[in-house]
Amino acid sequence: MIKKLSTLPLLVFVLLVAPLQAIAQQQSPPTAPQPPYIYWPGPWHMGGYGGGFQFWWICPLMMLFMFLIFCIVFLFLRRSWGDGSHHFVPPWQMMHGGPPTHSALQILNERFARGEIQKEEYEEKKSAILSGGQR
Fold first, then answer.
1. Would you list the domain boundaries of the chain?
2. 6 by DSSP, 3-state: which?
Protein backbone atom coordinates (compact mmCIF):
# COMPACT_ATOMS: atom_id res chain seq x y z
CA MET A 1 0.00 0.00 0.00
CA ILE A 2 2.85 2.38 0.83
CA LYS A 3 4.42 1.61 -2.55
CA LYS A 4 1.25 2.61 -4.35
CA LEU A 5 0.98 5.85 -2.37
CA SER A 6 4.60 6.79 -3.06
CA THR A 7 4.35 6.11 -6.80
CA LEU A 8 1.37 8.44 -7.25
CA PRO A 9 3.23 11.67 -6.28
CA LEU A 10 6.22 10.52 -8.34
CA LEU A 11 4.00 10.02 -11.38
CA VAL A 12 2.39 13.45 -10.95
CA PHE A 13 5.82 15.05 -10.60
CA VAL A 14 7.11 13.44 -13.79
CA LEU A 15 4.00 14.46 -15.72
CA LEU A 16 4.37 18.08 -14.63
CA VAL A 17 8.14 18.34 -15.14
CA ALA A 18 8.27 16.78 -18.63
CA PRO A 19 6.58 19.72 -20.41
CA LEU A 20 8.78 22.14 -18.50
CA GLN A 21 11.89 20.34 -19.70
CA ALA A 22 10.67 20.52 -23.28
CA ILE A 23 10.07 24.27 -22.99
CA ALA A 24 13.51 24.80 -21.43
CA GLN A 25 15.25 22.96 -24.31
CA GLN A 26 13.76 25.15 -27.01
CA GLN A 27 16.11 27.61 -28.61
CA SER A 28 15.55 31.32 -28.09
CA PRO A 29 14.93 33.40 -31.22
CA PRO A 30 18.04 35.03 -32.64
CA THR A 31 18.56 38.60 -31.49
CA ALA A 32 19.29 41.47 -33.82
CA PRO A 33 22.98 42.38 -34.11
CA GLN A 34 23.95 45.20 -31.78
CA PRO A 35 25.69 48.24 -33.25
CA PRO A 36 29.26 48.73 -32.03
CA TYR A 37 29.72 51.09 -29.09
CA ILE A 38 31.30 54.29 -30.27
CA TYR A 39 32.06 57.61 -28.68
CA TRP A 40 29.85 60.09 -30.41
CA PRO A 41 28.10 63.19 -29.12
CA GLY A 42 24.48 62.59 -28.51
CA PRO A 43 21.70 63.60 -26.17
CA TRP A 44 23.34 61.64 -23.35
CA HIS A 45 26.58 63.63 -23.56
CA MET A 46 27.12 67.20 -22.48
CA GLY A 47 28.29 68.20 -25.93
CA GLY A 48 25.25 66.82 -27.73
CA TYR A 49 23.14 68.68 -30.24
CA GLY A 50 20.86 71.06 -28.37
CA GLY A 51 21.90 69.56 -25.03
CA GLY A 52 24.83 70.86 -23.14
CA PHE A 53 25.09 71.75 -19.51
CA GLN A 54 21.81 73.46 -18.88
CA PHE A 55 22.58 74.48 -15.32
CA TRP A 56 25.82 76.38 -15.97
CA TRP A 57 24.56 79.32 -13.92
CA ILE A 58 24.60 77.37 -10.62
CA CYS A 59 28.40 77.67 -10.15
CA PRO A 60 28.56 81.48 -10.43
CA LEU A 61 25.39 81.78 -8.35
CA MET A 62 26.87 79.67 -5.55
CA MET A 63 30.10 81.69 -5.66
CA LEU A 64 28.14 84.93 -5.27
CA PHE A 65 26.05 83.41 -2.50
CA MET A 66 29.13 82.29 -0.54
CA PHE A 67 30.81 85.68 -1.08
CA LEU A 68 27.69 87.35 0.32
CA ILE A 69 27.67 85.04 3.34
CA PHE A 70 31.37 85.73 4.06
CA CYS A 71 30.79 89.49 3.78
CA ILE A 72 27.86 89.35 6.19
CA VAL A 73 29.85 87.32 8.70
CA PHE A 74 32.83 89.69 8.39
CA LEU A 75 30.66 92.77 8.89
CA PHE A 76 28.87 91.19 11.83
CA LEU A 77 32.16 90.30 13.53
CA ARG A 78 33.66 93.70 12.81
CA ARG A 79 30.59 95.43 14.20
CA SER A 80 30.43 93.31 17.34
CA TRP A 81 34.18 93.48 18.04
CA GLY A 82 34.72 97.05 16.87
CA ASP A 83 32.59 98.82 19.48
CA GLY A 84 35.46 98.96 21.97
CA SER A 85 33.97 96.59 24.51
CA HIS A 86 36.10 93.71 23.26
CA HIS A 87 39.83 93.90 22.92
CA PHE A 88 41.58 91.58 20.55
CA VAL A 89 44.99 90.57 21.81
CA PRO A 90 47.35 88.69 19.50
CA PRO A 91 48.71 85.45 20.97
CA TRP A 92 52.31 86.70 21.07
CA GLN A 93 51.25 89.58 23.33
CA MET A 94 49.18 87.36 25.61
CA MET A 95 52.34 85.61 26.81
CA HIS A 96 53.82 88.89 28.02
CA GLY A 97 50.82 90.15 29.93
CA GLY A 98 48.92 91.60 27.00
CA PRO A 99 49.13 95.00 25.39
CA PRO A 100 49.09 98.14 27.48
CA THR A 101 45.48 99.19 27.21
CA HIS A 102 45.92 102.42 29.19
CA SER A 103 48.84 104.75 29.39
CA ALA A 104 50.25 105.73 32.75
CA LEU A 105 48.68 109.17 32.47
CA GLN A 106 45.24 107.70 31.79
CA ILE A 107 45.52 105.43 34.82
CA LEU A 108 46.64 108.37 36.95
CA ASN A 109 43.69 110.47 35.76
CA GLU A 110 41.26 107.63 36.55
CA ARG A 111 42.71 107.15 40.03
CA PHE A 112 42.42 110.88 40.72
CA ALA A 113 38.83 110.95 39.41
CA ARG A 114 37.89 108.04 41.69
CA GLY A 115 39.40 109.81 44.67
CA GLU A 116 42.11 107.25 45.33
CA ILE A 117 44.86 109.90 45.40
CA GLN A 118 44.96 113.54 46.52
CA LYS A 119 45.63 116.57 44.32
CA GLU A 120 49.21 117.05 45.52
CA GLU A 121 50.13 113.42 44.83
CA TYR A 122 48.35 113.59 41.47
CA GLU A 123 50.29 116.68 40.36
CA GLU A 124 53.57 115.20 41.56
CA LYS A 125 53.08 111.94 39.67
CA LYS A 126 51.77 113.75 36.61
CA SER A 127 54.87 115.92 36.40
CA ALA A 128 57.03 112.79 36.83
CA ILE A 129 55.21 111.04 33.97
CA LEU A 130 55.40 114.05 31.68
CA SER A 131 59.08 114.59 32.35
CA GLY A 132 59.82 111.02 31.36
CA GLY A 133 60.42 109.71 34.86
CA GLN A 134 63.44 111.97 35.46
CA ARG A 135 63.47 114.45 38.33
1. 100-135
2. helix
